């Protein structure tokens, strides 16, 4: 139960950190890391280039690392 509480807190912290991102960047990270969508599929869903998706993903990760 203590382990569960620690895991739950970590998940809440991550969700809280994601709220610091723009909606589109949050969508990209969730699709890529949680739903395991490819960069190609994400770019099709958003109607932006694969390069743009990659750049947004990298920028978002950098921002999250600074916040941790």
Task: Produce the secondary structure layout.
Elements: H1 2-18, H2 23-34, H3 39-46, H4 50-67
Description:
- The protein is mostly helical and 68 residues long.
- 81% of the residues lie in helices and 0% in strands.
- It is built from four helices and no strands.
- It has helices at residues 2-18, 23-34, 39-46, 50-67.
- α2 crosses α4 (50-67).
- The chain is elongated and about 45 Å long.
- The chain starts with a helix and ends with a helix.
Q: Concise description?
A:
This protein is mainly α and 68 residues long.
Percent range for β-strand residues: under 5%
In N-to-C order, the SSE pattern is HHHH
Approximate helicity band: over 70%
- Quaternary state of the chains: single chain
Structural classification: mainly alpha
Cα gyration radius (Å): 14 Å
Low-confidence stretches: none
Quickly list its features.
68 residues, 0% strand, mainly alpha
